[in-house]
Specification:
Blueprint: E1 4-7, H1 8-29, E2 34-35, E3 60-61, E4 65-73, E5 76-84, H2 95-118, E6 126-127, E7 130-131, H3 132-153, H4 161-167, E8 180-181, H5 183-209, H6 212-219, E9 224-227
Parallel strand pairs: 1-9
Antiparallel strand pairs: 2-3, 2-8, 3-4, 4-5, 6-7
Helix pairs in contact: 1-2, 1-5, 2-3, 3-5
Membrane topology: Multi-pass membrane protein
Pfam families: L_HMGIC_fpl
Keywords: Fertilization, Membrane, Transmembrane, Transmembrane helix
């Protein structure tokens, strides 16, 4: 018989697991990993209201995507074009970024799987006599290691030609040159930290759902058990 068990700690772990998976996925897909050096506005980029030129803009570069400004696109004065610069995996600008993409993708796949499974832990607390919380916590720890490897390798690719074109000639491995780090990189770091927090907190979720009070309510015949 399925017993729906909802506790404060198990719900918090489930929500954190979902948030972490989405945060890492959004960061991976974003082009805002590196913010390039300012590009001066062209003489064609004139503000119709003030008559003055627009502020310089900063192109952005991700692991496999980029955002840049295109002037005079048909009816618009200017437009920002975002999309992948690499049509396939081999066209990613650096071998280090290719490794980063692999490790991050593996970590994110594990996190998305755990996030999906975590929704069902209210009804299923064990699988093959193993606590599903402990199994998910172990998987989150493994995912965190993949994410760390990816984030360590990512700065090693700052010396590639693609990064130099955005960050200037002084850019090299682990040196940003004229670039700065974008929100996607910081989101990936924050998500990695939360991944390990989730891995540790899964043990608390398991303790909460297998406590003596929960067992007492199960013995009383309750199918829906909600505990703070």
């Amino acid at each position: 018989m399925c017993h729906v068990i909802v506790t404060c700690r198990s719900m918090l772990w489930t929500l954190l697991s979902i948030v972490v998976a989405f945060a890492e996925l959004i960061a991976f897909m974003s082009a805002d990993w590196l913010i390039g050096k300012a590009k001066p506005s062209s003489s064609e980029d004139v503000d119709n209201v003030t008559g003055g030129s627009q502020e310089p803009y900063h192109p952005t570069l991700g692991i496999y995507g980029r955002c840049t400004r295109i002037s005079h696109m048909q009816l618009s004065r200017r437009d920002t074009l975002c999309g992948p610069y690499a049509e396939n995996f081999s066209e990613i600008a650096s071998g280090f970024w290719q490794a980063t993409a692999i490790f991050l993708a593996m970590g994110i796949m594990i996190l998305c799987t755990v996030a999906f499974v975590s929704v069902f832990t209210m009804c299923v607390q064990s699988i093959m006599k193993k606590s599903i919380f402990n199994v998910c916590g172990l998987l989150q720890g493994i995912a965190g290691l993949f994410l760390i490897l990816g984030l360590i390798l990512y700065p090693a690719g700052w010396g590639c030609q693609k990064a130099i074109s955005y960050c200037g000639p002084y850019a090299s491995a682990y040196k940003l040159g004229d670039c700065s780090l974008g929100w996607a990189f910081y989101t990936a770091i924050g998500g990695t930290v939360l991944t390990f927090i989730c891995a540790v907190f899964s043990a608390q979720a398991e303790i909460a759902t297998s406590s003596d009070k929960v067992q007492e309510e199960i013995e009383e015949g309750k199918n829906l058990i909600c505990l703070l």
